[in-house]
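Sequence in, structure out. Go.
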Amino acid sequence: MNLKMGKRLAKFIFKLLLWFVTLSVLWVLLYKHAPVPYTGLMALRSFEGGSGHVTKHEWVPIEEISEEIKLAVICAEDQRFMLHNGFDYEAIEKAYKDNKDGKKLRGGSTISQQTAKNVFLWPQRSWLRKGLETYFTVLIETFWSKERILEVYLNSIEMGEGVYGVEAAAQHWFNTSARDLSKHEAAAIAAILPNPRSFKASPRTSYIENRKKWVLRQMNNFGNLNLAEK
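Output:
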């Protein structure tokens, strides 16, 4: 490759990166206020399920979501959500140590990281996806409030087979609305989040019932959740 071709290639790569950064920032800014109607995960599950797959999803603003489910998912998934900048380094270090010691594999992903992955990326693990997840996590932590991150998370996360978001989950599991979820119902939904396609919030197995009781204890110990502070 001669010097002229090298300069052209470098210029092309620079423009490509510039376009990527510009478009990704605009995408994140769009979702700072607009509802997220559909995600890559929903599309993938629909493709995997074929013509018989049904996607249940209904966006609701955070004001119409029970305080109990907000607290339940934070207690179950990311208790340092209000304190970190998108990355819980203590959880990452512990996950690395546990995995290295041969214990049950676990992740250290925060609610912010899960939101970045759910909304902007795809579920399969790879170094490329993890790198992009880190990039989008930084963007949403920069441009969104913690309240907005939680709102998008609660409206996009998988909460059952073909069930996405807390409104669809409330209707599917307990025939109620996100606004009216009780403390015990919220804890039951939060208890299935590690594997929502296999676990059921109702009727519950003894394993999920024990997880639900653990979530309830965490909720009782957590104290008040004040999203307006961030």
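Check: The chain has a mean pLDDT of 90. The radius of gyration is 19 Å.
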